[in-house]
Write a sequence for this structure.
């Protein structure tokens, strides 16, 4: 009887000369962090200004109508996330990243010259497509480069860069709008970010798919059914419903962005109705993603050490408490405390959710699993815009915030009950 030989790493798909790790790929990793900061800045051009445009320029009185741009953005980005994951596995990461930046080119022009709300909605469909392709791809590329040991830290750095970009741009556009008007100044900043991001992605970013193949050669499945060779439908069902941890993560991501959609669309309106000035509204709009972004520099690494589940469940409950505080109080001081707490809870959750997907998903279909997770997560923008708009129209903004607080608390309880605790550290041990 002939002995069965064990295939070498090269035979199993490993690439010669490829090293995994943050230190080994520091230059390319740092470049991708910078690129994702620009992705976040492209989104941040809207956070302060667009809710005010809806009322002051286009005279949209109903919250549901005003939030149509977030609904459009969320649906487009959710679909683009799924496409990004599938195409990244099929064609490579870099082409998807470049196409995402190309898609963003008309967005600032549409926002500047729109003479009807329909053009604003169209701009956000295009922006959602761009954000789905670019942000998803930078996530996957960093997972590729770092490998399994420091995935939480890598996701913390990625998401910190993106949301600090959102925060810095939200703050800057608030000041620009107060000095020069709602248009065109704030959106010229977005145009500059798109040009720089496209140039860096074309000229300096390198393909990372071969790093994923190298990791796959030595990968040991962490849960039943997570082996190599799964088809698109199997990956979708596993990530969405069948695997306890992946499905818990997917629903938590959706609820997280549900409450972010509420914050994006209604918080500036709530603050303006209370008589706050544009620069103070800009501060509140910026502090939330700033705490969220900076906090991820710590929370991603903490999840490598202490596990994913405690940070996700605890972060959802802290978000719920923050939303309850904002709903129950009024004035710059209490709202500042609320958005700081909301940012801290989101920082606990956001990079940890992505790292948890990477813990369970096999490298050969990890990009697709990330795409499915981000499909559900960014679908939360659409659900949040529709739900909060309908409740705000019927009962007022504080009632909408309170309902979303309850949903967020329930999501944290689902994570605590359903997610496998051992998944938290399997890949970082």
């Amino acid at each position: 009887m002939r002995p069965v030989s064990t295939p070498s790493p090269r035979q199993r798909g490993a690439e010669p000369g490829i090293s995994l790790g943050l230190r080994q790929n520091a230059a390319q990793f740092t470049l991708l962090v910078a690129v994702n900061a620009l992705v976040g800045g492209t989104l941040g051009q809207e956070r302060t200004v667009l809710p005010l445009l809806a009322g002051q320029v286009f005279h949209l009185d109903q919250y549901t109508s005003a939030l149509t741009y977030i609904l459009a953005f969320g649906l487009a980005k959710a679909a683009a996330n799924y496409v990004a994951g599938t195409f990244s596995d099929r064609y490579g990461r870099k082409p998807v990243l470049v196409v995402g930046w190309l898609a963003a080119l008309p967005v600032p022009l549409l926002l500047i010259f729109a003479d009807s709300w329909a053009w604003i909605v169209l701009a956000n469909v295009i922006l959602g497509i761009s954000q789905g392709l670019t942000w998803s791809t930078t996530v996957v590329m960093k997972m590729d480069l770092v490998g399994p040991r420091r995935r939480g830290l890598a996701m913390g750095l990625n998401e910190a860069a993106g949301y600090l970009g959102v925060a810095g741009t939200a703050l800057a556009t608030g000041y620009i709008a107060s000095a020069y008007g709602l248009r065109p100044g704030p959106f010229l900043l977005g145009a500059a970010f798109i040009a720089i991001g496209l140039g860096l992605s074309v000229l300096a970013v390198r393909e990372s798919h071969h790093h994923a193949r190298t990791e796959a050669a030595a990968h040991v499945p962490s849960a039943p059914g997570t082996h190599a060779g799964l088809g698109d439908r199997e990956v979708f069902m596993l990530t969405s419903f069948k695997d306890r941890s992946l499905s818990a993560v997917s629903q938590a991501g959706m609820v997280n962005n549900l409450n972010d959609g509420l914050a994006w669309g209604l918080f500036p309106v709530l603050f303006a109705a209370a008589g706050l000035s544009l620069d103070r509204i800009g501060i509140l709009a910026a502090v939330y993603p700033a705490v969220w972004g900076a906090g991820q520099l710590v929370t991603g690494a903490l999840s490598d050490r202490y596990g994913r589940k405690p940070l996700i469940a605890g972060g959802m409950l802290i978000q719920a408490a923050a939303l309850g505080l904002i709903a129950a109080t009024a004035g710059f001081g209490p709202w500042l405390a609320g958005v700081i707490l909301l940012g801290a809870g989101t920082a606990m959750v956001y990079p940890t959710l992505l790292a948890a997907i990477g813990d369970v998903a096999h490298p050969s279909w990890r990009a697709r699993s990330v795409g499915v997770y981000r499909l559900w997560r960014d679908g939360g923008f659409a659900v949040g815009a529709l739900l909060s708009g309908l409740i705000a129209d019927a009962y007022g903004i504080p009632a909408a915030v309170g309902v979303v607080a309850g949903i967020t608390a329930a999501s944290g309880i689902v994570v605590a009950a359903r997610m496998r605790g051992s998944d938290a550290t399997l890949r970082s041990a």
Q: What stands out?
A: The chain has one domain: 27-208+226-426. The chain has a mean pLDDT of 86.
